[in-house]
Amino acid sequence: MESSSTFPFVTSPPLPADWEQLYQNRSILVTGGLGFIGSNLSLRLVELGARVTIVDSLIPDYGGNPWNVEKIKDRININIADVRDPHSIARLVQGQDIIFNLAGQVSHIDSMRDPFTDLEINCRSQLSILEACRNNNSNVKIIYAGTRQQYGKPQYLPVDEKHLVLPTDVNGINKTAGETYHILYNNVHGIRATSLRMTNTYGPRLLLKHNRQGFISVFLRTAIEKGEIKIFGTGEQLRDLNYVDDATDAFLRVGVAEWTNGEVYNLGGDEILSVAAIAQKIIKTAGAGRLSIVPFPEETRRIDIGSYYGSYQKLREAVGWRPLIDADEGFQRTVDYYRENISHYVED
Amino acid sequence: MESSSTFPFVTSPPLPADWEQLYQNRSILVTGGLGFIGSNLSLRLVELGARVTIVDSLIPDYGGNPWNVEKIKDRININIADVRDPHSIARLVQGQDIIFNLAGQVSHIDSMRDPFTDLEINCRSQLSILEACRNNNSNVKIIYAGTRQQYGKPQYLPVDEKHLVLPTDVNGINKTAGETYHILYNNVHGIRATSLRMTNTYGPRLLLKHNRQGFISVFLRTAIEKGEIKIFGTGEQLRDLNYVDDATDAFLRVGVAEWTNGEVYNLGGDEILSVAAIAQKIIKTAGAGRLSIVPFPEETRRIDIGSYYGSYQKLREAVGWRPLIDADEGFQRTVDYYRENISHYVED
């Protein structure tokens, strides 16, 4: 049993200019690695020369898609397993330097319809992963994928990390428990852990095949298919966005920085856009689609949080992160990707 | 299936002088009703003329003790069942006007040793209870037993409800998820719910038979048995206390008050005492026992929160609650109770 990582974590700020080189030849586990963010992160890690193992359950509807890693499939180890299974997780964490822990049920609507499955995946399996590390690889570092949904309806804007956590759906509650387990294991058991609370993230490899994983996914597919984008309410709710390469850059930065252990950071975007403006950008980029405003479906209205945008100042100060790809560029790259690969994202 | 409560909830503040009479002939379910607080609450409810059903799993070591309700056993319905069992819970919630939801795993140390059991009881079973109400009795009101442990290590004192929730143990994380489910079901599904975050509560019927349910329990038993009370650290950490009758009074008050729905309230005490001072009071009251200061055991030190006391101003303003029994009186009543009943609390 290999329990001591020799990963050369950077022990004091700032990150050196060549910090990305630290990933070369290192063993990295990406849970949920066939999903949207996990696959983009794995692509970057392979470019950096890391030895990547992906664990993914490929549960239908959850975002895992083997096509996401088509370009690197011969250079990574793909292990199909459910993070709820403590036996496979106990084996998989061994020998890893860093775990990017992205496996999760991410649909807010699904969490309200089936709260127990969300609990199993977003609470219980996180404990399984952390217990596996405690017992089998206590020198590892884990970076957890949190979400702005944990804050619930903002009490002030921009939301910083001092904002109360008052989730408006079961998914937000369980993601919060999962995050807090990580911070607890960092503080009590010495398992290095950092959480990044992501905002609306978009880009190539986002799940498009159903409409329960966020409005950008729905808007993109509708525009590409020349349909009508239906906006709930007034379309005036504000959001910030991150292009996926910016999000994965944040994960890679905190992964090597010792002073981020035990901390929680917001991601966030510089452009604050209304939902209607985001739809219009997507329509313009795709050169297709049209817009209509419709009343909120009851099921969605009840967990809606109004306007949200976050402050990423704490993360910027910690590791020098800021988003580099603006919405025009990001949506162009996204539309270009789906033009070429659409068949792998709309069929079952 | 009986789904509509006719309970005459008070719709606007303040509570009328005779609010306790509202419980007469009403159907009340107390989960964890054979435990410390649940049994004291049930005793009061029987005095008020309520029809009380207790559900308790009697899991060894968890605080349930049939002797706690010896005096009222012929006037209540005792149903042995585990709140993790969705089938019995679905049946038991039917026809109830109010549910006092006190079932839980309460040991912080046990939650660190066996986080999965704590998760099952404090997260999963809470979802079971709420789903049972949503499907079978959506007019019920639920009062949830939260804990000051949810706040973790205080960032300021006294701690009010605006303080960040940053638990330092698995129990605190799971109790927080359980609480937030209640608030969510109130806001989204219209199941009336209020949470009371209790502080150190003591009094007759506190579990004494093992040392993992709080320091007051340990101090009481040690003094009664003429032993040496070991205080960890310096004994200077501050705490506030509630005598159990004051705590149950808070539950009864919010139970009838419509304007508390969806809200979270701290309980708290007027006397802020050091742990050493509490030990000395207990020794003086018992007329037995002695004090020693010892280093923190590692397992306890890692989840210790330092000094804590809370503000109960919000609850006072909402329902006129304040604690009435001071520590001298409370410990006297407690010691008197155990002098008469000790055999039922120290044997298995």
Short description:
With 348 residues, chain A is of the alpha/beta class. Chain A contains 12 helices and 12 strands. A 7-stranded parallel β-sheet of chain A has the order 3-2-1-4-5-6-10, sandwiched between helices.
Question: How would the blueprint of this fold be written?
Answer:
Two copies of one chain form a homodimer.
Chain A: E1 27-31, H1 36-47, E2 51-56, E3 77-80, H2 86-92, E4 98-101, H3 108-113, H4 115-136, E5 141-147, H5 170-189, E6 192-198, E7 200-202, H6 215-224, E8 228-232, E9 238-243, H7 244-256, E10 264-266, E11 272-274, H8 275-286, E12 290-294, H9 298-301, H10 313-319, H11 327-341, H12 343-346
Parallel strand pairs in A: 1-2, 1-4, 2-3, 4-5, 5-6, 6-10, 7-9, 8-12
Antiparallel strand pairs in A: 9-11
Helix pairs in contact in A: 1-7, 2-4, 4-5, 6-8, 8-11
Helix count of chain A equals 12
Give the strand content of chain A.
15-25%
* Unreliably modeled segments of chain A: none
Number of strands of chain A: 12
Output the strand order for the largest sheet of chain A: 3-2-1-4-5-6-10
Biggest interface, chains and residue tallies: A-B, 28 and 28 residues
Using only C-alpha atoms, the radius of gyration of chain A works out to 19 Å
Task: Provide the helix percentage of chain A.
Answer: 25-40%
Structural class of chain A: alpha/beta
* Oligomeric description of these chains: homodimer
pLDDT average of chain A, as an integer? 93
